[in-house]
Amino acid sequence: MPLDLLPTRSDSAAANMATDFLMLQHYPDPSHARWRHYGWHRPAVTFGYAQRLAEVSTQLGPAAADLEWCRRPTGGGLVDHRDDWTYALVLPPGHELGAAPAPVSYAAVHDVIARTLTAWGCPAVLQPPGDSSPPTTGAAVCFNRAEPADVIHVDTREKLAGAAQKRGKRGLLFQGSLARTAVGPIDWAAFEMSLVEGLGHLLHETPQPQPWPEAWDDAVDALAENYTSEAWLARR
After folding, report:
1. Which residue, 88, 83, 38, is CA-closest to 179?
2. Any idea where the domains of the chain sit in the sequence?
């Protein structure tokens, strides 16, 4: 089975979340694993599906007024996307890794990220089981505290990468983020090529570029409207 590589795009926070959801629920070939790296039209944060809006507002503080924000379809905490490298990965139903327990799939994907970062000069490992780094200050809660199997810097122990997952009948969705500043200066385009090659080995699938699904254009716009609604933002 191939690992489909979708083109890199930048969009609003709501449209990015809508596209990731479509990757999981309405991909043209649901038997394929699929990957995309994407950017943001303006400074943005996303927060987990189960988080309360009031809690998120408190975490953001005065910065909230200057940011675009959206609830993710996955879990996890608040993620600051102003200086991150963001990706989504979907494993189809029935895939061995996709059917594994959440901690196993989480660690497996992050192990590939850690190995790729190390190969590019940023020594990285996974946060050990049963261990968490002390929290720091600031709004980017995801990168303030490394949980087990997050990617951390070998020397500084700073968190480099985290992710959230959503599992359903149509597969497993990863929404992940790397902290550019913590990683340091690397060739991110070349890093992505190395990373998807490593993911191909992990998944036993061959990476192959694919065009953007034409049917998604209208679907993304429609779903993004829902993701900007008060009902979606305040559903918890």
Report:
1. 83
2. 2-233
List the structure tokens of 190: 């070349």
Q: How many CB atoms lie within 10 A of CB 208?
A: 12
3 in helix, strand or coil? strand
Query: If you count DSSP H runs as helices and E runs as strands, how many of each does the chain have, helices first?
Result: 8, 12
Q: What is the pTM of this model?
A: 0.91
37-62 residue pLDDT tens: 999 999 999 988 877 777 877 877 77
pLDDT confidence tier of residue 133, bands split at 50, 70 and 90 = low
Q: What is the pLDDT of residues 172-196, one digit of tens each?
A: 999 999 999 999 999 999 999 999 9
N- to C-terminal Cα distance for the chain? 38
3.30.160.270, 3.30.930.10, 3.40.50.720, 3.40.50.1820: which CATH number matches 2-233? Answer: 3.30.930.10
16 three-class SS = helix
Which helix (DSSP H) or strand (DSSP E) does residue 227 occupy? helix 216-227
Query: If pLDDT is split at 50, 70 and 90, which confidence band does 235 have?
Result: low
Sign of CA dihedral 111, 211, 187, 190: positive
